[in-house]
Amino acid sequence: MTTAPTLLAVACAFALAACGGDRSAADTAVGATPAPTAEATPAATPAAEAPAATPAPAATAPAGSDKPAAVVANCATEVEGNDAMQFNVGSIAIPASCTEFKITLKHTGKQPVTVMGHNLVIAAASDMQGIETDGIAAGAANDYVKPGDPRVVAHTKLVGGGQSDTVSFPVSKLKAGGPYEFFCSFPGHAAIMKGTITVG
Ligand code: CO
User: Fold this and answer.
1) Domain ranges in the chain?
2) For the chain, first and last CA: distance in Å?
3) Can you say how many angstroms the Cα of residue 172 is from the centroid of all Cα atoms in its chain?
4) CATH code of the region 65-199
5) Looking at residue 64, what DSSP letter applies?
6) CA of 119 to the centre of ligand 1 (A)
7) What is the CA(43)–ligand 1 centre distance, in A?
8) Which three-class secondary structure state does DSSP give residue 134?
9) How far is CA 64 from CA 91, 193, 196, in A?
10) How do residues 147-187 score in pLDDT, each as one tens digit?
11) 124 C-alpha vs ligand 1 centroid, how far in Å?
12) What's the pLDDT tens digit per position in 120-139?
């Protein structure tokens, strides 16, 4: 009970010192370039609303939106992975006219598969985490994909620098549900190595 008034007094004293009319007025008058407009960070509100609303667009947008779309021709495309743990494309759009689609993963780097291995796994975005976890348990011998994992739509082998692998799958597998993503299941890579894959 005795502390409350004391704190109040201190607060008032501080406020007075900080906002003393004469001093701040003088500062501005001198023309000392007012603090640069460093108040342009409206971070609070959007973040607070994010969890519940709009799951689909929010989940797919950050995947690889800063990278170009894969070049698709004849129901096939090539995706490159490199030594900097990056895919060269952020999205793959499969034409609806394709019944089968082929993806070739080419590792353009020099690092061995044990250090900077890449594969390309396709699955529903909601299954990525589980596939990754089980893939790590399955180990490199299984290309970091649990054998027979029903959540995996398709996947290439794990490749190292200079190597490549091609996988082909029925497009119909992507038509039920989604959104779908492609990602690398090498431990720790999927956070960066991922993108969206759509049909139509
Ligand atoms: Co990788």
Assistant:
1) 1-41, 65-199
2) 70
3) 26
4) 2.60.40.420
5) T
6) 6
7) 31
8) helix
9) 7, 8, 7
10) 999 999 999 999 999 999 999 999 999 976 789 999 999 99
11) 18
12) 999 999 999 999 999 999 99
